[in-house]
Amino acid sequence: MKLEDLAGLRFTYDEVGSTQYDEVPEGFHRLEHRERIGDGDEVFQRAADALLTWRMHRAAGLLVTATATPPQVGTDSLARLGPGMLIRRLRTQVGLPVPCRVVWVVNEPDRIGFAYGTLEGHPEAGEESFLITRDPDGIHATIRAYSRPATWYTHLAGPITRRTQHYAATRYVAALRRLAA
Q: Is the pTM of the predicted complex or chain greater than 0.85?
């Protein structure tokens, strides 16, 4: 699968855009991971830049390509799951494809982020959002997702898949903290 192949793919779920709200669609698992990543305007701006240039994803170990930077509604992205560091060094198309499409974007003085939804061929069905906020107690990164298995192997993996998703969320936030410092 190549990035240019994604244009004709459909979403694998009906509740497109739901990560903007607190409700989780029926039959989906929810993940929310929020951490303080620092203080001040510079931290906020560097974190936003890392997020909107896809550097956060790459720093977390995903080889990701996208049709637009910064992301906008309709941007397609293609990442590869697998041994991240090896894939990045080889710059190959090795690994399980994870095709997504951006479904919402926010760019406000105190909130910057976006969400993407899974496309056909993704091992999960659902949506994941990435948000940087400036709050009274500092700058925070929030990863919110809802998902359910979309393939036989993710269904079989059950709780392991959810633990992997939580692990990825912690890596995203750790990457943002490093890149924003």
A: yes
